Amino acid sequence: MGEPQMGDLPISNSVIELEGDEFWPLSEKPFFDVVLTKTTVKPMYHLVVPGKFSATLPSCTIPMILTFRGKNWEMIYHGSSSYKRLDNWKVFAIDNNLKVGDACVFEQLECSSTRLVFRVQILRGDIPSEFLDKLDGDNVDAPIVLE
């Protein structure tokens, strides 16, 4: 018998590491993703939970934990405002060197009326520098156009 091959490993336990970040297949738990813009990674550091997903979350202000690479970040989720947002997102963004064009996948691990827990995957976007000046980043109506 030879060494086990990657295909022999159960998918649910597979973790791929690429340049220090870890990736794994999503479970069947709910998730949402966000492509980061200037407003999410520079002052204002404003992250809003997408409307379709926020409808499934509590409509109150509760503690929230983001976990990435074995570390936890404590946030406050504001579900009672018109825009469901996170306080303390700035610390997570800076600690993980998030940039415009990166994406985060938030996989819900726990959801109750007293606490939310999400496991985060970070997908590095690295937009080429020649396009950064053309990227508005304030809304989805300002796409990068390649001519």
Structure report:
The protein contains four helices and eight strands. The protein is an alpha+beta fold and 147 residues long. The chain has a domain at 28-127: DNA-binding pseudobarrel domain (At1g16640 B3 domain). The strands form two sheets. It has a six-stranded mixed sheet with strand order 3-7-8-4-5-6, with helices on one face. Residues 1-20 have low confidence and may be disordered.
* CATH superfamily descriptor of the domain at 28-127: DNA-binding pseudobarrel domain
**Main sheet properties:** 6 strands, mixed
CATH topology annotation of the domain at 28-127: At1g16640 B3 domain
> Within the largest sheet, what's the order of strands?
3-7-8-4-5-6
Helix fraction by DSSP (H/I, runs of at least 4): 10-25%
Compute the gyration radius: what is it?
17 Å
Q: What is the succession of H and E elements?
A: EEEHHEEEHEEH
Class from helix and strand fractions: alpha+beta
Low-confidence stretches: 1-20
> What is the number of helices?
4
Strand content: 25-35%
- Overall mean confidence score, pLDDT: 80
Topology, number of strands? 8
Q: Write down the overall geometry.
A: globular
Distance between the first and last residues' Cα? 54 Å
Q: Based on the structure given, which CATH architecture of the domain at 28-127 is correct?
A: Beta Barrel
Summarize the structure.
The chain has helices spanning 38-41, 51-54, 89-95, 129-132; strands spanning 16-18, 21-23, 31-35, 61-68, 71-78, 85-87, 103-111, 116-123. The chain is an alpha+beta fold. It has a domain at 28-127: At1g16640 B3 domain (Beta Barrel).
